[in-house]
Design brief:
two-stranded antiparallel ribbon; about 170 residues; single chain; 7 helices; binds iron/sulfur cluster; mainly alpha; 3-stranded antiparallel sheet
């Protein structure tokens, strides 16, 4: 598509700067190989244009937002992959050890469950014996928990949007 080919350096730089700033404020790091990272940022912009949301650049999006919520960047699997492998699946976010060159980036296996499993998990409801005064909401990206009537518009920790919260209790 023509529009996708014409994404300006300025636009890429703007999103790169924003992601870097948000990441650092929340204790995350962008991959220090800037050219590589900007390629991923470019793909995020393309996905935003194609689907209306920043689907993961390394995974095939369905185009249905409700089915792709777990892979809107930053995806639900980022933190676990950084913990286990030092980087997210695409290598956009890395651990401090990778940032400092203390360990090398390795290939990362896909952690996203198969579609069937994801569908099943969606329909599973949690039962609790004692109702709480407020529901507890969990950010599926970073695990932040809060007890309030509804989830926050933006996660104060990782900046994920409201739609990425799930009812925890
Ligand atoms: S955080 Fe997740 S969605 Fe974002 S680039 Fe990394 S693997 Fe892809």
């Amino acid at each position: 598509m023509e529009a996708e080919k014409n994404i300006s350096e300025k636009k890429i730089q703007e999103l790169y700067d924003k992601l870097k700033k948000d990441a650092e404020l929340a204790g995350y790091y962008l991959n220090p190989t800037v050219d590589f990272t900007k390629q991923l940022v470019r793909s995020l912009i393309i996905n935003q244009m194609r689907y209306g949301y920043q689907a993961c650049p390394c995974r095939l999006a369905s185009g249905k937002k409700e089915d792709d919520l777990d892979i809107i960047c930053p995806c639900d699997y980022r933190d676990a992959d950084i913990l286990d492998y030092g980087a997210c699946y695409c290598g956009l976010y890395v651990s401090e050890k990778i940032l400092k060159g203390e360990i090398q980036l390795q290939s990362i296996p896909e952690r996203r469950p198969p579609e069937e499993q994801r569908k099943k998990a969606k329909t599973t409801t949690q039962k609790i014996s004692e109702p709480l005064p407020y529901p507890v909401w969990r950010c599926k990206v970073c695990g932040y928990l809060c007890a309030r009537e509804s989830p926050p518009e933006i996660c104060p920790i990782c900046k994920a949007k409201k739609e990425r919260f799930e009812r925890f209790i």
